[in-house]
């Protein structure tokens, strides 16, 4: 059993945390102000503190196209040959996919023929079911739910939900597919709601890619605009369209539009320059191409998502969702921009929110988190909050805590195989420090992912 520390989060403070959580979920903001406050000062949350990390599980920037555009060996069995970035696939007998096949005439809609023809028919059919409209709630990535509500006129959805539906309909028929996120540009700051009118525009779009066994390649399908792009009669992947866009070769690319490509949204709005939109404006979204490196969102709806962003001479690296581990976020894509220029700082590790977290990549190397304080501070306690996922708190098996004292790093704590716990408290000899570092040696993570350092919060306090 984890060691209790009565002087850390005592009964009154725990009740305060519970009440704050409950009132926040109930949106009773006026009552939040009436909750008691406590004199405890978390040095890691002082203004001017900076937190840096070595890597991100949720964000991978790579110029190795083969790691992202890997071959599919057996689409029906989900057998792929990914490179350095793993790709998790959904099983065709997953219960929701089975029900999806039973509830909707997917095989009849897809018909016979090659993978491109079948996937295009599915695309056109999904777009015919409901017009684009911001949903009342951001639903789970579940095509059964989306198509059921959309086809019955209960609710309408946006590009991400069209794409989820196509991906899972393809999976249900034994074709491999995945989600693609696009950004016209990337910026640190923008006004929420004005992404499309910012200078430069930073709005995003979501499409899908499907594997063609006949062509031996991935090809892009845009359900929301009911179209795809071809060069010399061959459908293009998202990255191939990116290359044509940045090279100024769009004249050699042809947009193939389905019967519902002009039916963009529920308001009945029309495009000012329809031909120019499909020939020039829509391809501009492919300035940044990010591939979600898993499609098993039914089997594991809450799990971390690795987003692989391809970079080249025209495309700089990005950081996804403030550097989070990308768990529990149905709003991951759209309608708010979620990517920004890459940097290695993560304010979310010291923002007090135990429902979000960060994870390192899973390379067989040392991983670390470094907190640089606002100035010299007297340190006496370090508290580490571990993420909860699939029944377990992901407590690292081995790590050390270091502090910068008088300009030199010194080890304060060396932990070997600590017990699983929601949080771990380390009391250390009081010292004036300017920075604190958590270091996990190679292989020192939780048993199910020993190469990953996974953390929700780090708190720093003075002596008791």
Automatic annotation (TrEMBL):
InterPro entries associated with the record: Galactose-bd-like_sf, Papain-like_cys_pep_sf
Recorded superkingdom: Bacteria
Protein name: Discoidin domain-containing protein
Source organism (scientific name): Micromonospora cathayae
């Amino acid at each position: 059993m984890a060691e209790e520390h009565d002087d850390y989060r005592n009964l009154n403070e725990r009740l305060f945390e519970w009440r704050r959580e409950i009132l926040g979920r109930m949106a009773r903001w006026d009552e939040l102000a009436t909750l008691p406050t406590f004199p405890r000062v978390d040095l890691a949350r002082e203004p001017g503190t900076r937190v840096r990390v070595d890597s991100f599980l949720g964000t991978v920037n790579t110029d190795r196209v083969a790691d992202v555009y890997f071959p599919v060996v057996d689409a029906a069995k989900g057998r792929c040959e990914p490179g350095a970035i793993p790709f998790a696939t959904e099983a065709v007998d997953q219960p929701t996919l089975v029900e999806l096949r039973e509830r909707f005439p997917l095989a009849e809609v897809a018909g016979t023929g090659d993978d491109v023809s079948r996937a295009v028919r599915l695309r056109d059919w999904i777009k015919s079911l409901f017009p684009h409209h911001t949903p009342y709630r951001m639903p789970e990535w579940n095509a059964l739910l989306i198509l059921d509500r959309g086809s019955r006129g209960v609710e309408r959805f946006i590009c991400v939900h069209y794409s989820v539906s196509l991906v899972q309909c393809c999976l249900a028929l034994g074709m491999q597919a995945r989600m693609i996120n696009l950004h016209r540009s990337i910026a640190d700051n923008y006004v929420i709601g004005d992404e499309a009118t910012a200078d430069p525009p930073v709005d995003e779009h979501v499409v899908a890619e499907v594997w063609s066994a006949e062509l031996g390649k991935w090809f892009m399908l845009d359900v929301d605009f009911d179209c795809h792009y071809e060069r010399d009669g061959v459908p293009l992947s998202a990255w191939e369209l990116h290359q044509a866009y940045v090279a100024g070769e769009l004249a050699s690319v042809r947009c193939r539009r389905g019967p519902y490509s002009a039916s963009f949204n529920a308001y009945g709005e029309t495009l000012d320059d329809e031909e120019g939109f499909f020939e020039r404006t829509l391809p501009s979204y492919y300035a940044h191409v990010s591939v979600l490196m898993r499609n098993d969102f039914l089997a594991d709806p809450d799990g971390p998502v690795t987003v692989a962003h391809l970079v080249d001479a025209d495309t700089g690296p990005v950081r996804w969702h403030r550097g989070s581990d990308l768990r529990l976020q149905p709003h991951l894509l759209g309608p708010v921009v979620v990517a920004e220029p890459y940097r290695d700082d993560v304010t979310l590790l010291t923002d007090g929110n135990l429902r979000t977290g960060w994870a390192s990549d899973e390379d067989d190397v040392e991983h670390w988190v470094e907190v640089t304080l606002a100035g010299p501070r007297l340190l006496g306690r370090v508290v580490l909050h571990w993420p909860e996922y699939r029944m377990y708190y992901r407590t690292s098996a081995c790590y050390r805590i270091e502090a910068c004292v008088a300009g030199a790093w010194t080890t304060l704590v060396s932990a070997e195989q600590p017990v699983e716990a929601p949080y771990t408290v380390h009391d250390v000899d009081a010292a004036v420090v300017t920075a604190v570092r958590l270091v996990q040696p190679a292989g020192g993570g939780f048993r199910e992912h020993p190469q990953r350092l996974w953390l929700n919060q780090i708190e720093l306090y003075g002596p008791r």
